[in-house]
Specification:
Elements lengths: L2 H4 L12 E5 L7 H18 L9 E5 L1 H11 L6 H11 L16 H6 L1 H15 L6 H10 L2 H9 L5 E8 L5 E6 L9 E3 L2 E5 L4 H7 L9 E5 L2 E6 L10 H5 L4 E5 L23 H12 L4 H17 L2 H6 L6 E5 L5 H8 L5 H9 L4 H8 L3 H17 L1 H9 L2
Parallel strand pairs: 1-2, 1-9, 2-3, 4-6, 9-10
Antiparallel strand pairs: 3-4, 3-8, 5-6, 7-8
Length: 402
């Protein structure tokens, strides 16, 4: 993020301090965000003794984080109960509600024939559909779960100021942020090198585009600037995750990512000479981790440095500078999600396990993005709640400044 991002040049000129929630991407791993937010809601209830109003004015999501953001926007009028609703949604979710893998040649004979037949069938399926998995079940799930009318109501009545989701254009290479406010027609779009922000109603198509994991889910078309472009996961080419929140005028930003302190290793690479190197599965897992290896930490640190510098300046000097202070708090998993997914990998649907079995050695790295099953989801939610509780004083202090 450049200093220019922090210059007080917001697209929206708020007359009140705004709280923003930024939710990063990562497939099934984003169930961790549900735990963090549910933990936050419980803390707030204990502090106030009752359900209070929805604590965020701006919701911004990337990939599966965009699905969480849109779901929260659709029920933001319910205050803190919106976080419980999100947890209930994830609790009822299954992999079959998100994707399907139809490999007709993986019959009983093919299963006995070994990985070669599975690999050929998988390759044929990917060639025909442009991805390994069919994401149509997710379309149906989102239409049933997310009320677009609820989003409009939250924006119209002022519960929310903005909802934004990000996606990456395969057609132009530009990283787009699609933002929806109560007055989209009155806000000018933003155009920066490699990044665009436009204002329009958020639809299920936007959410599908933002969450289209490369190679895994097919690209989704959207109309931008009068032409049809194909979009994939918003985590790709995301060089400045905090930029949309800053452009929308946020004064406080809570970011929940699904990065991890360390990747689960594998035997072979660091073994004595002669041992075989990484398998295709390890390479695929590393490539997937690279897609979701956002620049969040660097972005957060720069925003914090600028804010700290502004606070140290004399008040009369800071008042004439074209910058504003932004409080940023970031939370990420305290444990390896690869390792956690490895424990629950057996919950994957049989067809998916066979497909990943072709990528021998992939372990939990790939499965962690596709494990929309109760065991893994609940383990992630529990981890998120523990991590939120461990930072209780920071979280409550963060909102106390409001």
């Amino acid at each position: 993020m450049s200093l220019n991002t922090i210059i007080n040049s917001s697209l929206v000129r708020p007359d009140k301090p705004l709280n923003a929630l930024v939710l990063m991407g990562g497939g099934a791993r984003t169930a961790y965000q549900v735990g963090v937010l549910q933990g936050l809601a419980n803390m707030m209830r204990l502090q106030t003794g009752a359900d209070s109003h929805f604590p965020f004015n701006i919701l911004i999501g990337t990939s599966a984080g965009a699905l969480n953001a849109a779901y929260l926007a659709s029920c933001a009028g319910q205050g803190l109960h919106a976080f419980n609703r999100l947890a209930q949604f994830w609790g009822s979710l299954r992999s079959s509600h998100v994707y399907r893998l139809q490999l007709s040649t993986l019959n009983s004979w093919a299963a006995r024939a070994g990985r070669l037949v599975a690999a050929l069938s998988l390759s044929r399926h990917a060639g025909a559909h442009g991805a390994l998995l069919d994401s149509m079940p997710l379309v149906d799930t989102l239409h049933r779960a997310i009320s677009l009318t609820g989003i409009e109501q939250a924006l119209t009545c002022g519960t929310l100021d903005a909802l934004a989701v990000t996606a990456s254009s395969y057609t132009s290479g530009v990283h787009w942020t699609f933002c929806h406010t109560a007055q989209d027609d009155r806000v000018k779009p933003s155009n920066r090198p490699g990044r665009r922000m436009i204002f329009q109603p958020i639809t299920i198509e936007h959410l599908m585009a933002s969450s289209a994991i490369p190679f895994i889910f097919p690209a989704n078309p959207l109309w931008v600037d009068g032409q049809r472009e194909f979009f994939g996961d918003g985590s790709m080419r995301q060089i400045s995750p905090l930029s949309p929140a800053l452009q929308l005028g946020a004064h406080r930003i809570l970011v929940v990512g699904v990065g991890q302190p360390q990747r689960s290793g594998f035997s072979g690479v660091a073994s004595p000479a002669g041992a075989r190197g990484p398998t295709l599965g390890h390479i695929a897992g590393h490539a997937m981790a690279s897609v979701f290896h956002d620049t969040l930490q660097a972005d957060v640190e720069q925003a914090q440095r600028v804010t700290q510098t502004l606070k140290q300046l004399p008040r009369e000097v800071a008042a004439v500078l074209p910058y504003r202070s932004v409080e940023v708090l970031a939370i990420q998993p305290s444990q390896s999600l690869d390792a956690l997914a490895q424990v629950h990998a057996g919950e994957l649907p049989l067809a998916t396990r066979r497909a990943l079995g072709v990528l021998k050695g992939s372990g939990g790295a790939l499965s962690s993005y596709l494990l929309f099953e109760p065991g893994f989801v609940q383990a992630l939610i529990a981890l998120g709640e523990r991590d939120a509780l461990a930072r209780k004083s920071e979280l409550l202090g963060f909102f106390a400044t409001a």
